[in-house]
Design goal:
alpha/beta; Arc Repressor Mutant, subunit A; seven-stranded mixed β-sheet; five-stranded mixed β-sheet; 9 helices; 14 strands; WH-like_DNA-bd_sf; RibonucZ/Hydroxyglut_hydro; MBL fold metallo-hydrolase; Metallo-B-lactamas
Length: 344
């Protein structure tokens, strides 16, 4: 595991507290502490693990606080490396937990679904994406299941101020990585907390897992990136991973260009015969290579392909049609296959 950076006093009542993600190549989540007269407010909380808890509590001590002092935890999104310890912080301090309402709905939905429902849904989506029977068997045995975080006490909306006494922290809804991802603009100290939305070197996963849904996560993400176009060049960007930087608008434009290039590449791979998500994903370049991926990673890659295919559909460059085997296939718009008749 990569070494943790130090706890840092960033000035103006803002601290950076690295919290490890055991066994994950990302290494750590940067949790931020905002000082307030009512006690610290945390931006994200870190992974739910004893090593992570020790790092969080010792980091708070380095900032002159204790976990019992925490007034609130505002989450950039619901993923476990951001939300995992929020419930434990709340138990120790009575702090409130806040996240955007779109992610709050997902968290409550995951809780209702349970482990068996999650597994069944993963298998259903992978089968519809074109996974082979042997792959589905491996997925049934090894699919990682999501442990939903504690439901929030407060649901946030775009533009809503966050309850940080004596400070001005504003919610900026930036969907894409998750439906309810938010950035947080600290207006009294010229800082922008970007979670996973804007990172200095890597790009977050943008996936469409239920491609029968009406959503367009990549389209939402590109629109969210455009919302940052007016952020001043010298605004200090505090992401949840890697390192701090400036030039939010410039970095947002670079990420958008990356996705536009991937959309162009996917459009070139479409042919008149149509292809499943599994087939399209196998044709795309991946860092580890499709052949080297375990089936759970292939499912995530296919979800990313699905998000790009949906964006092509919305732009009128691709059409989805079910094949004779009932599997959805994507075609270039000018060569779309006829829709298979509905089965009785």
């Amino acid at each position: 595991m990569r070494p943790l950076p130090p706890v840092e006093d960033l000035g103006e009542g803002v601290w950076s507290v690295p919290v490890p993600i055991p066994g994950n190549p990302l290494g750590y989540t940067l949790v931020y502490l905002l000082e307030s007269p009512r006690g610290p407010v945390l931006v994200d909380a870190g992974w739910n693990h004893e090593d992570s808890w020790r790092a969080l509590t010792s980091g708070l001590a380095s900032a002159g606080a204790s976990v019992g002092d925490v007034y609130g935890v505002v989450l950039t999104h619901f993923h476990p490396d951001h939300a995992g310890l929020a419930a434990r912080v709340r138990e120790a301090s009575g702090a409130w937990i806040a996240m955007h309402r779109a992610d709050a709905e997902l968290v409550r939905g995951f809780a209702r679904l349970g482990a068996d429902g999650q597994r069944a849904r993963q298998l259903r989506y992978a089968a519809a994406a074109g996974a082979a029977p042997a792959e589905l068997e491996r997925l049934a045995e090894s699919a990682p299941l999501f442990e939903p975080p504690a439901p929030p006490d407060r649901d946030l909306s775009d533009g809503e101020p966050v309850d940080v006494p004596g400070r001005s922290l504003r919610t900026v809804w930036t969907p894409g990585h998750t439906p309810g991802h938010v950035c947080l603009q600290l207006e009294d100290a010229d800082r922008l907390f970007t979670g996973d939305h804007l990172l200095p070197r890597i790009t977050p996963n943008i996936g469409l897992y239920g491609f029968d849904d009406a959503g367009d996560p990549l389209g939402a993400y590109l629109s969210s990136l455009a919302k940052l176009a007016d952020i001043p060049e010298d605004t200090r960007v505090l992401p949840a991973h890697e390192h701090r930087f400036t030039g939010a608008a410039r970095r947002a434009a670079e990420i958008a260009e990356h996705h536009e290039a991937k959309l162009d590449e996917l459009a070139r791979l479409l042919d008149g015969g149509g292809a499943t998500l599994w087939e399209l994903s196998a044709r795309l370049p991946w860092k580890r290579g499709w052949d080297g991926m375990e089936v759970a990673s292939r499912r995530m890659a296919a979800a990313e392909t699905a998000a790009h295919a949906r964006a092509l559909e919305r732009r009128g460059l691709a059409v989805r049609a079910d094949g004779d085997d009932g599997l959805p296939r994507w075609h270039p718009a000018e060569a779309a296959a006829p829709q298979a008749p509905a089965r009785p």
